[in-house]
């Protein structure tokens, strides 16, 4: 059987990703990040990200084709992230994909970025034994849970079928978890990206030094066993960020040195506690037995530790793809495109538009 050769393009945030797959085989996964250009602002600036995609797109494409030793003409289809993400950033990838599809006369598949994060499981080499296309084809009826945590998203999904049945259980109402890390790092005078910096600083701190709020975990949001709260599986990190700011301001007003390690550790504990509690609630209530952890924050040492611990307590199998497939990349987009094409799904219309809030 012919395995489709697919070019995948990802540009929803600050990574310009080009991935090439042949069916479930990953040929290349090229990522160019504009992270450095956002450092002095302490967060991703959409306009800068868009311009960086424009600069990186064609060189990244050439590099990927060369590395995979294939040509554009050989492709069976082009797949591109259609959303959700930053509107201008998405538009660069979608425009590039359309141009390539028209020029080379290839079908084009618009891909949902969040579903693609789970689509890495369609690859033979996701970094987890047994997490591959066969696994994705034999999902139990209750589905696979996915906890996606990055600078752009914080979501809990249930995937019952990767191409036709994906449900969003919960999401952040304000900041993404990674964004909260980045903003708090800035308050503490740590460098961007804040995640790794806080992760490191927290190692020497006391996570119980400050009792920071656990957003949307009060009964009126979570509900009880009998009664489901309106934001049971949702997240909010803006109150936490404000609480950290108040503490830091307090030390500064008193002319005292800010205990950076303790604040970092306490903040991190609040974030990770809420994320893992809500993920466990979702899994137990939905009968989910396997949880995938994805997104850039999956690199966080405390999140990995507490998720592993709580999954074990709840009898849930935790799977974490290799980090290059957890962070934003083109391979996941290509992998999902290959699956859609393999299933004989119709490609997207050439005039489809990027949708920053794609459901
Ligand atoms: O998935 P990702 O590379 O892409 C975007 O969201 O664009 O995630 C980047 C995010 C940043 O917010 C960064 O601070 C966070 O992931 N991050 C971490 C760690 N490493 C990266 N957050 C917490 N702990 C880490 N070790
Ligand atoms: Zn992502």
UniProtKB/TrEMBL annotation:
The record's free-text note on cofactor binding: Binds 1 Fe(2+) ion per subunit.
EC number: 2.3.1.234
Keywords in alphabetical order: Acyltransferase, Cytoplasm, Iron, Metal-binding, Transferase, tRNA processing
Domain Gcp-like: residue ranges: 26-334
GO MF annotation, one: tRNA N(6)-L-threonylcarbamoyladenine synthase activity
Pfam families (alphabetical): TsaD
Gene Ontology cellular-component annotations: cytoplasm
Keyword Cytoplasm attributed: yes
Cofactor dependence: Fe(2+)
GO annotation, biological process: tRNA threonylcarbamoyladenosine modification
Catalytic activity reported: L-threonylcarbamoyladenylate + adenosine(37) in tRNA = N(6)-L-threonylcarbamoyladenosine(37) in tRNA + AMP + H(+)
Binding-site positions, Fe cation: 113, 117, 328
Superkingdom in the source lineage: Bacteria
Annotated residues for binding of substrate: 148-152, 182, 195, 199, 300
Localisation: Cytoplasm
HAMAP family per the UniProt record, alphabetical: TsaD
Family: Belongs to the KAE1 / TsaD family.
NCBIfam families in alphabetical order: gcp_kae1 (TIGR00329), T6A_TsaD_YgjD (TIGR03723)
Function: Required for the formation of a threonylcarbamoyl group on adenosine at position 37 (t(6)A37) in tRNAs that read codons beginning with adenine. Is involved in the transfer of the threonylcarbamoyl moiety of threonylcarbamoyl-AMP (TC-AMP) to the N6 group of A37, together with TsaE and TsaB. TsaD likely plays a direct catalytic role in this reaction.
Entry protein name: tRNA N6-adenosine threonylcarbamoyltransferase
